[in-house]
């Protein structure tokens, strides 16, 4: 399985992206003005990030896990934790790490400038889950790599986590109208589109809430959960003030956006 890691990740990514695009078209949650015109820039960012990661760390975080496993490095090997338990705890703890990392990127001004590229999307759909500055992606790789080595996380668990992280990012950014009963049920475990959309509100208190990407429990545990936006799902304004203009959604503008001042 590990030998097929790039194929597995790309296949799941493509399948989920196509599925979300089709579902968004069939069951849209909010009307969109720019819609597909934003996709070239959002896809361009993920393409540049992928090239950068392959140049800097060709084996990725799964390769780091294989390296650590071969040397018996990490907490789980030191404690002789059974493989199944180490795998399960790795997925959960890495998801917690992403939650903490997300909060830090909101709290530290220089990191917020990088992460602001993601929030400056004036509309939200599956492509927004790909819209991250390449430097942020590189920093995230480094943070995850350190955690994987410290834990001694099994490579299979790391691969599963990476696949889940990518798939849930596409899902919870989707402009998808789920039935209220289904949203309530899913939200007990997973971050749903209606839950994560609140995080993209222009209102600061809502932007600094609902940080989870996969598991929804972290926001409840740490007091950052907001159930509904103040203006409602259809009335809330998405994006960052001053960064919504059509011209600012061009790929070149997104790449240099962290160099410019802007509101939180």
Q: What does this protein structure show overall?
A:
GO terms for molecular function: iron ion binding; oxidoreductase activity. With 264 residues, this protein is mostly helical. It is built from 14 helices and no strands. The mean pLDDT is 94.
Question: Keywords for this structure?
Answer:
mainly alpha; 14 helices; 264 residues
Helix and strand arrangement:
Elements: H1 5-26, H2 39-56, H3 60-70, H4 75-79, H5 83-107, H6 109-119, H7 134-151, H8 155-172, H9 180-187, H10 193-199, H11 204-207, H12 217-221, H13 232-235, H14 251-256
Transmembrane segments: 6-23, 43-69, 81-100
InterPro entries: Fatty_acid_hydroxylase (IPR006694), Sterol_Desaturase_Related (IPR050307)
Domain Fatty acid hydroxylase: 90-224
Q: What's the pLDDT, averaged over the residues?
A: 94
Strand fraction equals under 5%
Q: How many E-type strands?
A: 0
Percentage of residues in helical conformation:
55-70%
End-to-end gap: 42 Å
Instruction: Tally the helices.
Output: 14
Tell me about the largest β-sheet: none
Count of spatially separate domains? 1
The general outline is globular
Subcellular location: Membrane
InterPro entries: Fatty_acid_hydroxylase, Sterol_Desaturase_Related
Pfam families: FA_hydroxylase
GO molecular function: iron ion binding; oxidoreductase activity
